[in-house]
């Protein structure tokens, strides 16, 4: 089960934050097929958001074929977004971890790392290609 | 979707002065609506009409398809802004009144609300803080297990923690029972995180209403050369410096030479409020 962290100051719509965090968890293998997403009730209890917003996010994820609502039971993961490359222990991930160790060693702050990573990502993955 | 609450050419006058002047809106079942507007815009009058405590001067108001008939609809809960409670009763006695006056009464739910807010049941109501009185009022309203809950300025007296807990509780009712919720506030920031519908009331008239997401998608904030501001269509509100104009427009197109983006809800509401003031 995952827990959503809703940042009300981020400027990103709440339902979009739920969609993004779900995709992220699917990508990282934190959610796998068969897992149940928290019910709207559970999300509301944790973060005081509008349950209609949660359901709207789930409908969008369902439209994308990632999850499936089962009446009276909840919403379940249908498809994973994790690949061998993004799972824990994968070579790419280990390389990135090693790179980050070197960055840390070189005295880079968290913001420095984010900026550097973001910059290179922009270069290699210009926005407009793919999504999120 | 059916409307839980709707108004058509709704007018309410007090001694010849119009508090509501031709209101049109519809709130679908299950929606969480922010009723927003400056002080004196008619928000409390509108909620009191919906609660059946006032009669329209003309036009109509419907609650689950029916016109209120001089008493509160059995499916409706209402908390007035002045929190009408008997100061000399204890909280427990207040709940007992609630049980006596209502055919449908969920004592457990009412007590749960007060437990969560840490309001002692044996305290006399007049000894409670304004925030705690609000919680008693909400407990009374939720004890009716309403399908439509009308709350007049529910958050104004609450500290941030109580505010968060109250919203959580109300959102829980929406999640569990599909309750329709209408909350008024003169502060949009109180409500904009949790609402999916908006009714913006200014000077007794509804200036803007609908699903918040649609409203945002239908508007743009345009920034561009002040010299060409006059040629832009659909301007709701404009402000400008010598060279640069910032326009709130209704419409999705962005004219050439302008930068445009969707407004935030706050910018949208402020734009309409400023436009009304300038008129």
From TrEMBL, chain A:
PROSITE patterns: HTH_GNTR (PS50949). Residues 12-80 form the HTH gntR-type domain. It comes from the Bacteria. Keywords: DNA-binding, Transcription, Transcription regulation. Signal peptide: none annotated. One of its GO terms (molecular function) is DNA binding. SUPFAM superfamilies: Winged helix' DNA-binding domain (SSF46785). This is HTH gntR-type domain-containing protein. It comes from Kutzneria albida DSM 43870.
UniProtKB/TrEMBL annotation, chain B:
SUPFAM superfamilies: P-loop containing nucleoside triphosphate hydrolases. The keyword tRNA processing does not apply. It comes from the Bacteria. InterPro entries: AAA+_ATPase (IPR003593), ABC_transporter-like_ATP-bd (IPR003439), ABC_Transporter_VariousFunc (IPR051782), P-loop_NTPase (IPR027417). Keywords: ATP-binding, Nucleotide-binding, Transport. One of its GO terms (molecular function) is ATP binding. SMART domains: AAA. Residues 5-228 form the ABC transporter domain. Pfam families: ABC_tran. This is ABC-2 type transport system ATP-binding protein. It comes from Kutzneria viridogrisea.
